[in-house]
Every structure is written in C-alpha cells, then in structure tokens.
Amino acid sequence: MSVYITRENKVLIQGMTGQEGSYWTRHMRDLGTNVVFGVTPGKEGQDVDGVPVFHSIVNGIKAFEADTAMLFVPPKFTKDAVFEALDAGIKKIVTVAEGVPLQEMLQIRKAALSCGAMVLGGNTSGVISAGEAMLGMFPYWIDRVYKPGTIGVMTRSGSLTNEVTAEVVKAGFGLSTLIGVGGDQVPFTRFVEVLPLYQADPGTKAVVMVGELGGSMEEEVAEAIAAGFFTKPLVAFIGGRTAPEGKRMGHAGAIAGGGRGTAKGKVELLEKAGAGVAKRPSEVGPLLRQALGT
Amino acid sequence: MSVYITRENKVLIQGMTGQEGSYWTRHMRDLGTNVVFGVTPGKEGQDVDGVPVFHSIVNGIKAFEADTAMLFVPPKFTKDAVFEALDAGIKKIVTVAEGVPLQEMLQIRKAALSCGAMVLGGNTSGVISAGEAMLGMFPYWIDRVYKPGTIGVMTRSGSLTNEVTAEVVKAGFGLSTLIGVGGDQVPFTRFVEVLPLYQADPGTKAVVMVGELGGSMEEEVAEAIAAGFFTKPLVAFIGGRTAPEGKRMGHAGAIAGGGRGTAKGKVELLEKAGAGVAKRPSEVGPLLRQALGT
Amino acid sequence: MKLFEYQAKEAFAAAGIPVPKSRLVTDPAQARAAADELGGHCVVKAQVLTGGRGKAGLIKLAGSAAEAEALSASLLGETRQIITRLLIEEAVDFKREVYLSITVDAVAGKALIMASADGGVDIEHLAATAPEKIARVLVDLDQGLQAFQIKNVVFALGLAGGETGKQAAAVVKNLYAVFRKHDAELAEINPLFVTADGSVVAGDGKLIIDDNSLSRQAGYELTREHFDSDTEFEAAQDGIPYLQFDGDISLMCAGAGLTTTVFDLINYEGGSVANYLEFGGPNYRRAKRAMELCLKNDCKVLLVVTFGTIARADVMAEGVVEAMNELKPRVPIITCIRGTNEEEATATLRKAGLEPMFDTEEAVRKAVALCAGGKS
Amino acid sequence: MKLFEYQAKEAFAAAGIPVPKSRLVTDPAQARAAADELGGHCVVKAQVLTGGRGKAGLIKLAGSAAEAEALSASLLGETRQIITRLLIEEAVDFKREVYLSITVDAVAGKALIMASADGGVDIEHLAATAPEKIARVLVDLDQGLQAFQIKNVVFALGLAGGETGKQAAAVVKNLYAVFRKHDAELAEINPLFVTADGSVVAGDGKLIIDDNSLSRQAGYELTREHFDSDTEFEAAQDGIPYLQFDGDISLMCAGAGLTTTVFDLINYEGGSVANYLEFGGPNYRRAKRAMELCLKNDCKVLLVVTFGTIARADVMAEGVVEAMNELKPRVPIITCIRGTNEEEATATLRKAGLEPMFDTEEAVRKAVALCAGGKS
C-alpha cells in the first residue's frame, strides 16, 4: 500500500515544458504516475509526449480533474506556483526547487496550513510509492534501495536516505512510501504532519525517520509518539551526532541552536518516547527486525 | 436554549474602559453575560465594576480563560482588534462598530474564515439569547420584543428587527437567540453560516430571517434550504421589495446589482426552496404558526 | 463616493496606467483651445456620474477644434442634467476594446478582478447572457496580487504575449495598486483600448471610493453632481441619509431597514413617498434637522416611524415635539415611536397634542388615507 | 550571510532606527580622528562576526582620542582573529538595556519577534533559565505587523507609555521593515539602550541575510572575515560547501546528510576529519575542483562517499578518476560510489586502479585504519 501518491492520483505538472520538467515528467510516467496535464504560460495547445499543456491551472482544470501538483519551477517562482496550485484547490503539492527565499518559505508554509494542503519540499527529491508511482526526481527503481514493502520512510536528506533505505532493504524489508520533506530550514510539511498518513495506512507496518541535527522536527515526532498519536514502530537515524556545535554542516536546516536542534537532544527524546534510534545506518535494519518481531 | 452566547461563555471586552465600553459592559452583565476581563492598552491593573483590565488579550488570558470577545472599538481600529482576538485563538467575536473601511472588512472576513472563527458584525447591535445573556448594545429586555422562546432570528437590521420580532412575540412565540450579522456590505459572518447553529440547537424550532435587498445572503439561505442543509421551518421578511433600482436605500449592504441582490429575486428563490416569505411584518407571526402547526 | 472620469484617470495616470492626453475644461472657449492643442480630432466627454454616457449622447466625437467648441457649448447647456465640466481628450485609434475591473467579493473576503476580451458598452449585456466570457480572479488582500493571477487576467483579456502582453500586465498590476491605495469599492477600465500599434490605453475610468475610508483619501469632495437633487446634496453634507421621490408622504424614520420597509408598506397601500429620510443611529438626536429636510418637500403628511433600543424612544419623541414647535409644519404628523422608554415617549407626544400610534402598518394606512383626503 | 555590526547599523539607520554616531576606521590614526570628532569618550568595536565580542575583549571603552588610538592599534594587531575594521562609536549614557530580535518560526510559518525587558550580554542565559521573560510574538508575513503586536512587544520591553513608548514602537516597526526589506534570517538589537533622557538607541546590531535571497540584496559581499580559514573562503566563492577541521581524513562526499553521517562514523571509529566537503547536487560534475580543495589539507587519506540518484554514480566516478589523473594526489583515495549507473562507475574506478567499495561503514573503517598506519 502507498500513501500520498498512488496510480489513482491525477497529477498536473507546473513547468512541464522546461528541460527539467519534460525530463522528469517522462520518468514519472515511466514509473507509473498518472500525469493529466502540464502548465506553462504561453504554451497552451502544445503537448509533451501526448500530455496536454495549458497556460494556467485554472484553464487545465476546466478540462481535466487534478488532485496533485508537481512543480518544476525555479526557486524564485516557487511561491507563485505553489500559490497558484493552492488557489485552484490542489491539496497535494510537491516542489523540488532548492534555494527558495527563506521568507517566501514562511509564506508558503503558512498558506499551505491555511488551506489544509500538504506541500512537500522545497529542496526534496520528492516522494516514491515503491513500485507504484513517483513524484519528483527519481530516475528509476534502484532495486537495492526502493524495493516495495511495508516500511514508510520519511526524510530530510537525499543521498543519506539511499544509504539508510539500502539498509532497510538489506534487512529483508521494502518500502511502502518514501516521503522527502526536504532539507530546507522551513519544510512546508513537517515529519509530525506526515505521521498520520503512515498511521492510517494498513500497508505500512513501521516507519523509518531519517533526521539530522538542526530544527525541531525530530523532537516533535518524539512528542507525538509519547502522546500516543503515533503507535506503529518507528526507527530513527539522526545524522550529526558528533558535529561540533555552531558549525554549519551542509544545508540551512542543520543549524544547531537553542534548546532544541542538537542531535543528542533528539536522540534522547526519541529513545525516551520508545522509538528505536540507530547510531549507524547499518543498525536500522536490525532495529526494524527487533521492533517488528521478525 | 441558546446559541452563540450563553451564561457559560467567558467573555472578554476589548475597549472596556471607554465610555461606550464601560456603559455596555454594565448592561451586558446586568443581562446575564459572564464578563471575565477587559482589555485597554495602558490600563492593566484597573477594573470596571470589579472586572479586571489588561493591556492586551495575551496578558488577560494568562490569568483568565476566555472564549468570546466583544469589541467596543472605533471602526478604524476594528481590524486590529479583531486580529488580536483571532491571534489569541478566540473563535467568537462580536464587533458593533459602523464605518469599518471596506477593504479592511474583506481582510477581517478572510482572516475569520482562515481561523474558523465566527465574527459577527460590523454595524450590528449584537446578539441576544433572550432572558439569558447578551453581547452588544441592548439596554434591557423589552418584553414585547425579546421574550424567551423557540424562534431563532437572524438579521441584517436594527429597528426593523424589533418591528419583526415584536410580531413574533405578538403571535405567541419567543426568541431563542437573535443574531445580528450587521448591515455592512461585507458581513463577517453570513446568514448561511449562522444556520447550522440553529439547525443543531434543539431549543430552536424555527428561524426568522430579516433580510433586505442587496447582497446575496438571502439567496444563499434559499440554496441551503433547497440543498437540505437546513431543515427547520424558516420564515423570511425581505425589505425593499418596492425599492426603485439603483437608488441607495440606507446602508451600503443594500445596493441592488448584478443578477443577485434584488428583493424580488430573493423572495422567488426562498419561496421556491419552501421558506415562508412574509410581505409585511405582520405576516411573520401567522406564517410561523402555519409552519409550526400551532 | 464616485469619482468623475477625469479624477479616476488622474489616479490611473499617477499609478502608471496609460491614459489618453486630455484637458479638463469648463467653457466652450477652453474646449476649443484644448482641442487645438490635441490636434483638433478629439472626444468631448461630459463629466457626469451617471452610466451610459455614450448612449445618452454625453460623449461626442469632434473632427476639429471648432466642432469641439460647438459640442461643448451644447453639452454645457444641457438642461436635463447638471454638467459643469468637460474632458477634451485625444481620439484614440483603437482596434480592440477589452474590459477590466476590480471590486470586492463579500463572500470570499477578497478583491475580485473581472476581465473580458469583449469590452465596451455592452459589457452588462455580456454579463447577463454569457457570464463565462468574463473571467473572475479573487485576490487575497493580505497576500496581494500574485504573478500567476496577473497572467491569468492577461490571458482572459486575450492580450498575452509580446509588448501588448507586458503593457496589459502592467495595467492589471497598477489598477490593483489604485484599488488598494484609493480604498476603492470599484476600479474599472471599460473600455481598455488596444491601439493599432499594440499599445494599451484606458479609454474610460471609473473609481468609487469607499465612503468609510474617505477620511484618509484626501482631495476628493462631494459636489452637487453626485446627487439627483439639492436636498439630497444638503442632507449628505449633514450626514443624514436622504433620497428624493415625488410622492405625498414624507418619511422621517429611524433605521435603514425599517425605513425601507415603511417605504414598501406605503406602496402596498397605494400611497406614494415624498422622501426617504433616516435619522437613526448617530442622528437620533437630530430630529429638528431631519424634519427641516422633510418639510422641503411638497408633502401631504409627515410619517415618523421608529423602533429603537439605543436610539431611545423618549429622546426621539422629545426631538420630534421640539422640531414641531419650532418649525410649525403645515402638514399633519403621524408618529409610531417605540422601543426604549416608550412610555415616556408616548406621554411626551400626547402632551404635544399628537395621537401616538404603536403599529407600523396601521400608521402607514392612516398616512395613506390622509393623503387620499381622509381625516387625521 | 552575516553582516558586520556597521552594515547592520547602516541598514537600521536607513530604516529610521536610532543608532549612536560612529565612524568606520581601518587604522589607529583614523580611529584617533574619529574619536576626536565624537568628543573623545567613545567605544572601539572590532568588526568581526563572532558573538560575545565584549567578553572576548573586542569591544573597549576609550576615555580619550589618544586612548582610542592605542586601543585600535592593539585590536588591529590581534593575531587570534582577523580584524581589519573598527567602529568608533560615541559612548551612550544608558540607564537600561533591553532585547529585541526578529527571526523565522519554521513551525508557524511566520516571523518571530522576541522581546525582553532584560537585555544585554546575558540574554542567552536568560533564554535558558527564564524563557518566560522573553515574549514571543508571531507575525504573519502576508498580514504584516499589526498595531496590537507592536503594542505587545513594547509592553514586553517594559517601555510602554510616553515618548519612550512611542520611540520603542517605532523601533519595533522599523526593525520589522528591515527584516522584510533585507530578506533577513535574523535582525537583532541587543542591547537596545534606553538613555537617561528616555530615548531609545540601538547599542548593537545583528543582521543575517538569507543566502537564498542574496541575489536581490545588492551591496553585500562575503569577505575573508566570514570564514574560519582561507580554504573555506575559497570554497564558498566556488559555491562548494566546505568546513575546515584539523584531522586526517579528507571528506569528499555528495549530499549534506550523507557527509554529516560519514563525519559521525569516522568519529565513532576513532578517526579524525581533515575537512568536510560536499560536492552533491549542483556540484556533482565538479569532482576536480572538489579534490583540489581537499588536497589543500595535510590529510592522510581522501574518502569519497556518494549514493546519488540524480547525481549519477558514473559521472562522479569519471570525475574522480579525471581529478586523480590531473592532480596526482600523494594520499590514498578510498571510494564508495553508488546509485544511478553504479556498474559503469565501478568499472571506471577499477580501470583507474582503484578498489571501489560499496559499504559506507566498511569504507570508513578502512580510511581510519589507513590513517592509523594500516595498509591500503
């Protein structure tokens, strides 16, 4: 089973005619995603591999139903494109762009909350429901990473996710849906807001969270578990446990600061809440086996 | 039974120390309203008849619970005061001020929708749950107008409401709660959004709507009835049935224009939906008796 | 408050919206000079606030300065309507007319932009018969106008692409700025011309400023042209809602809804209304001024109906009696004053020799009967 | 991008926030002249980006121009830290210090104003021990800063009422304007001074501009002072994330999360890191430049770990081999390159004489062993 994206979803692509847009549209369709139309102002009437293009979402949805928007739009136009999708009533939006201005990230997050929409990104590779469908930039199913199965994965990272999911697969499991919330300082959707999808999905038996130092998303997950809002087994891997304080390790999301945000604090809270916490990626598989009694 | 305001509600008063604010606070308390604190910046530590005053809502709610805000604030500060109440999580807000700038009305309406709050006004006398409690500017229970009973009244007017409710009382009925949504061009809450309160209230057997030409609130009510969203008897009185088109009859809410907004159109839609429509105020009582089989 | 075309266009131009060259004139000689300056070929436009000026013959095309002078003389000599100012405007060589406006959407709590590729005089017909040809874009005032919304409006205008598209986008953006800056209830350009060389120019301009915001919109004042009658103008300056009709019964009531209802009831009973006057709310202590305005009418009866809570019955009754004593109206007065302190009000009215009534519909019937020659 | 105090104060002053009079100087003679102009009694402030300047002795009070000159000479001669600029500032006679900052709240999606009546050097201690003394006000960027929020902040600062209250309200409003206009991640005034006569003055200024918005914030550029080392500065100019450490293993990895994890694993194994370098994302075709930077370290081994999908394994492997051939590193290279087109990558590496690995933890153990004197 899958969450967020299945073959039933009707996906529109903003920025479909661009080089990136058309390239990844092809890959998404190859991997099962149901793309209904694309949007590029000025190109209404054209098509990309038979998928029709419209000037705007409002024009597109006069002709086709759509429930999901996938954005291939540069960072400085991301806010406008997300607002366009929200305005059209789209409740699932994925945006891969890295480099959205910080204060526009706040506006996007706020607007999504107001609309009750789940916007994934920015700075994410996207979402995959393994073997079923994909939103974002995954070129093909890498067998040792994206084997279909029953483990939900949520992550702030790219390469590290592959490192960790490879361990999940090595341990004999597979993935239900992998959701990348993105590595930015203001993820439009937070881990704790993804959890209810996995909680409700009978096809997801456990969740792996790939976190890192900085921000407070992992602490929020610990609180949700402690409060009983999430009751399935959860195994976390937290990067940056030996990172020196005050040094920026990579993306902006990873600034340790304040009472929250240290890898140590995250690990402690998660362990206290009863989550499994892997010190190394290779411990993720065994912890999952232990939690699921397999 | 009552809706919106009962003796259980904990009411804070914005602008309580002003002349109007203190005058009506006294009346509200006399009529049963549970006033917990007042807000006037710079006057924290003072009191009005024993009700404590705080600089701000955030300061007040540190000390006292509150679920309702009553504003006695001039029109040009109304938006700020409503935003302050919304920001503090208050979901019921009544504002009596007439003359709020039109575009600020839009912002208030929009903010209230986003917060899931029900803001009544502007330009309303307020709300009364007859014999129980009052928010706004009703000096005392006028027996021939506000007798307690089972009829919900919703209105855009002031004096006309008294005219109509007097007929309700004359016909042997009384009022559950009278809700004035106000006479402005952009009521912060629309008739159709008030209906669910009456629908859910076992103490309300029927509803009287005091409408008039202009806007589309009465048409929306007709649609809600036709769609089965409101199933109790409803009797409407619509003022302005002989008004010449294009003349402004009183407040800004009453501009006839476009396909909607004529008194004639409202009457037709309401009758088609099965509502009783009184041509004269004196017909409201008999129509209610007919609808309720009494 | 409705602005005149020339005021609207000044506001548009200040915001960067292209408008035709023009001169505001008040006499035919000025009109001739202005037309000369503009090259002779020009449009003479009466600055009045009523709609449908073209069809009413209040906009004329002049081929020469002399013709402009003659047309101006004829327009300024109009007797059906007060015309004191004319806009002499260069004639625009347009190939298309489109429609663009911004107003408020009370349901959404947003600004509403309406745009159509078919503009000009028949927009109201279009709205009634083919509403799908008018695109509607809602703008959240807090978020402001978004780039995608500008694009959608420009597509709806049929002007996307190239230099015309850029200019049209700027007009949309700037009209929204005008709407916000001027606290507008309506900002409209109809027609928006597209010229032969692809430029975009505001052919007409309508701007209505929200009355509640007038105090922060300096530079505009109500003039006699804003009203249909002298008394309406006078009442407005006093802040008393007043409308002129030509029937028998002068209404002096409190509350807009109640006054409107009394108006209806009079019509139902076969009577006719001389004027609508509403002295409730902030005006409830101003009975004398209200009665003065009512008595400017050649009415047969003065009907006072109130049912106030804050607007106290006793205060209004005293006001009516005082006004009666000072103004000594020659027509009979019927009162139906109820609400807060009704007993005191009743006593006051009785003491002044009136026969207070307590039922609006009875009071209306009595007023209509009096006009028809019945006894008071 | 962090701004220097003098840049932050320029931005504050431009927005109407009162700041002390000051001169930016680069040598002791200028410092003396500046101090003279300011009346002798002044503060000499090193323009560096590290926090805690007061405690570190980088802010000095001078009683005379001569003293200012001497203090400046000593600060500019600092060897622990690069100091090229000093701010010579009039000494403010303050009676209170309060705290005011604006940053982002990722959970709410709003700006977060923090205000405390207790400002100054111990704000971090206060935040840890008495967080309730720091008021937090969330501002919706679309709605903007509301009047009630300004009031709440001024009350929290303990400055409500009178002229001080008005000035404080203006500072809050203007700091928010700075925050918005400069696309700030942080705008902070600590301390905000209240002087003996009740005026409000920004004692210090901190402004961090969001890196993603730098392209629309003209006039600021990264300088050597923004970095702890020359190589970090060099890498930043090339847009390659790089951090300097002083251990043995040079990291050349793709993906921030993976690089951070490799860093952890090395520490777990008892190894040490020479540098953190991340060449994923847009940099994945720039292996040569990345390796050049890594080889500036006195490292014992170069560890390449990647697991990319878009950042193709074959491209990165080719890049590594090419860089190796050109740069001829004297230290051993360990590769663990996986992901899209992994087979081609493996072949490329083998052909170049490397022994590709496929398990990150094994690769880390091997690197640590190599440093400890084990065999490659």
Would you give an account of this structure?
The complex is a heterotetramer, with 2 copies of chain A (294 residues) and 2 copies of chain C (376 residues). Chain A is an alpha/beta fold. Chain A has 2 domains: 1-123, NAD(P)-binding Rossmann-like Domain (Rossmann fold, 3-Layer(aba) Sandwich), CATH 3.40.50; 145-294, Succinyl-CoA synthetase domains (Rossmann fold), CATH 3.40.50.261. Chain A is 33% helix and 22% strand. Chain A has 9 helices and 14 strands. In chain A, the strands form 2 sheets. A 7-stranded mixed β-sheet of chain A has the order 3-4-2-1-5-6-7, with helices on both faces. Chain A has a 7-stranded mixed β-sheet with strand order 9-8-11-10-12-13-14, sandwiched between helices. In chain A, helix 3 (75-87) runs parallel beside helix 4 and helix 7 runs parallel beside helix 8 (263-273). Chain C is of the alpha+beta class and 376 residues long. Chain C has 3 domains: 21-90, 2-Layer Sandwich (Dna Ligase, domain 1), CATH 3.30.1490; 94-216, ATP-grasp fold, B domain (D-amino Acid Aminotransferase, Chain A, domain 1); 230-371, Rossmann fold. Helix content of chain C is 36%, strand content 24%. Chain C has helices at 5-14, 28-37, 65-76, 123-129, 147-157, 162-181, 230-237, 256-268, 287-294, 313-327, 342-351, 360-371; strands at 22-25, 42-46, 59-62, 86-90, 94-105, 110-116, 135-139, 184-195, 200-202, 206-209, 242-244, 249-253, 273-277, 301-308, 333-339. The longest helix of chain C has 20 residues, at 162-181. The chains are: A alpha/beta (294), C alpha+beta (376). The C-D interface holds C 140, 142-144 and D 140, 142-144.
